[in-house]
Amino acid sequence: MNGSAAGADVCVCFPAAGGGGATLALLRDTAARRGMTVLALSNAESVADVDSGRWKDRAVQEVRQAVAHMSGRRVVLAGHSMGGLSAICLHAALGTRMSVPTGVLVINTPCPDPSGRIPTMSHLPDREIAQVLAHDGFPQELLDDEDMLSEIAHGLRRDAVVADRLAKVIGSADHLDQLHVLSGRDDRFIPPERCAAWRHRVAEEFHLTITPGGHALDATRTAAVERAFDGLLAATPQREVTA
């Protein structure tokens, strides 16, 4: 957790499957430039971690501690792809356990269909995963190394199984009050149509921004991320903090 002044907003960031990446860094940097306390959390490690409630309890506790430590006035939950599913799941839990206004921004996160399904890598073979990664600019020399590709694909399939479970949980949950979504127009695996479908799961305000770019957004898309972030902040009131 980075350091900020007391009374700062708290931004909780979740990564895509595989962890880390340029998009997560972009979210963290955007929040930090706005003087927010940035809390980077992990996605659930397994389906059992989701089903038992352990992951959600840990995440809620960490957010509560950050808000209490900083006298936080509001919370922004932000996530990339699978991390967006984590942010949406956590939003429901925070709503029942905390009184701090909370908003959600997701980037290239697919909306579950009526059966709770999303585009998934959980059953894709190594070579199909390599094709998806190559389109998004993943270094070809790593994809050409069979051992390296096998390791990468195994990790992504493992995370995708957990993402599938998060999607099922969201599919059977109540609608969100509001949601801000940023989608890369050139994302072949999670196209804008799957991001736009969130409008059916939002009861009040829904904001969708489609920007040039693929599944992972880098620093060239900073302006688009900042506009989406600022739109969320404008729509999320701050709690009054007494001295």
TrEMBL record:
SUPFAM superfamilies reported in the protein's UniProt record: alpha/beta-Hydrolases
UniProt cross-references to InterPro entries, sorted A to Z: AB_hydrolase_fold, TEII, Thioesterase
Positions of the Thioesterase domain: 75-216
Matching Pfam families: Thioesterase (PF00975)
Entry protein name: Thioesterase domain-containing protein
Similarity-based family: Belongs to the thioesterase family.
